[in-house]
């Protein structure tokens, strides 16, 4: 069964016959290519176009993070699943304001539902009530700008509870660069979720550059941003709460300079290990009546989106029921 490989050490990754070989100061590590679904590079790894051609031929995606743990980009093989008809329908739903609003509203509705579930049973009734109000206001939103504004205000209320949940300083959401440990964790985790969603999109005939909540633009796969909104509360926020409350992560796992805070290599390893456990964990699906992996929930949402675009059923995002 294919899996995800995380490379933290510096070195050189190359093709060796019909497999992959990582060379560094520790020696040589052979990685059977049949076992690889995607690769994350966190160290200063060297590779050439011959390797990229090999990865493309094998359908392997690669995601690159810099020395500070900031996501810099992904290598996506040429699409193997193409559907001109689906592409036309994707574009139609973007160009039609009413159709686009339906999808944009659905993504935010799912996100607000899931972040509210993270707060339940924590004695945060006031914040939960505010989220309920935003979810009600969402139904009346008549533009993408209103929907985005509602989502931003909902998350601001959500983040206002994080200091109480974690006991760590938060303040406000800062991104480029993160100004404290919690912001660094959120940014790193969100990048992990974005790349996970991107990999799942690649396994479908959807075009990752055509989106509905986020504006399509150059140099990013904006549909992955749309879908990630629904899953960040499940794949990122819960992990952050768990790692901090169980003291698996401490402030000693972060590096700071004058302008930014970022996870140390050991901190990234701890988070990635927990993230891998989370996406590979299973849950009994209430509709399918069988156990599915968390990462499979992403694929199921993508299939529901395809059916919506084709007019077969109305899209409903994954909403935490457990």
UniProtKB/TrEMBL annotation:
Keywords: Antiviral defense, DNA-binding, Endonuclease, Hydrolase, Magnesium, Manganese, Metal-binding, Nuclease. Pfam families: Cas_Cas1. CDD domains: Cas1_I-B. Its cofactor is Mg(2+); Mn(2+). Its EC number is 3.1.-.-. One of its GO terms (molecular function) is metal ion binding. GO terms for biological process: defense response to virus; maintenance of CRISPR repeat elements. It is an enzyme of class 3 (hydrolase). Mn(2+) binds at residues 151, 214, 229. Homodimer, forms a heterotetramer with a Cas2 homodimer. Belongs to the CRISPR-associated endonuclease Cas1 family. HAMAP family: Cas1. CRISPR (clustered regularly interspaced short palindromic repeat), is an adaptive immune system that provides protection against mobile genetic elements (viruses, transposable elements and conjugative plasmids). CRISPR clusters contain spacers, sequences complementary to antecedent mobile elements, and target invading nucleic acids. CRISPR clusters are transcribed and processed into CRISPR RNA (crRNA). Acts as a dsDNA endonuclease. Involved in the integration of spacer DNA into the CRISPR cassette. This is CRISPR-associated endonuclease Cas1. It comes from Desulfofundulus australicus DSM 11792. The gene is cas1.
């Amino acid at each position: 069964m294919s899996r995800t490989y995380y490379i933290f050490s510096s070195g050189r990754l190359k093709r060796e016959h019909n497999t992959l070989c990582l060379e560094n100061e520790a020696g040589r590590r052979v990685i059977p290519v049949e076992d690889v679904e995607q690769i994350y590079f966190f160290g200063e790894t060297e590779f050439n176009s011959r390797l990229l051609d090999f990865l493309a031929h094998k359908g392997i995606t690669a995601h690159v993070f810099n020395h500070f743990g900031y996501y810099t980009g992904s290598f996506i093989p040429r699409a193997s699943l193409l559907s001109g008809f689906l592409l036309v329908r994707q574009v139609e739903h973007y160009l039609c304001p009413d159709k686009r609003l339906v999808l944009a509203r659905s993504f935010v509705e799912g996100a607000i539902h899931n972040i509210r579930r993270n707060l339940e049973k924590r004695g945060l009734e006031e914040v939960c009530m505010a989220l309920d109000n935003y979810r009600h206001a969402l139904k009346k939103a008549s533009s993408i700008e209103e929907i985005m504004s509602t989502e931003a205000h909902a998350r601001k209320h959500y983040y206002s509870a994080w200091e109480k949940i974690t006991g760590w300083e938060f303040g406000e959401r800062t991104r480029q660069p993160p100004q404290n440990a919690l912001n660094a964790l959120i940014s790193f985790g969100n990048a992990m979720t974005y790349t996970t969603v991107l990999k799942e999109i690649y396994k479908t005939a959807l075009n990752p550059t055509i989106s509905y909540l986020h504006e399509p633009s150059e140099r990013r796969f904006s549909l992955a941003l749309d879908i990630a909104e629904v899953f960040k509360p499940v794949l990122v926020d819960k992990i952050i709460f768990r790692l901090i409350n169980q003291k698996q992560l401490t402030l000693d796992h972060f590096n700071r300079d004058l302008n930014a805070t970022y996870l140390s290599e050991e901190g990234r390893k701890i988070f990635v290990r927990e993230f891998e456990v989370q996406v590979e964990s299973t849950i009994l699906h209430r509709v399918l009546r069988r156990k599915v992996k968390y990462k499979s929930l992403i694929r199921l949402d993508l299939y529901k989106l395809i059916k919506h675009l084709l007019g077969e059923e109305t899209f409903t995002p994954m909403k935490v029921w457990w």
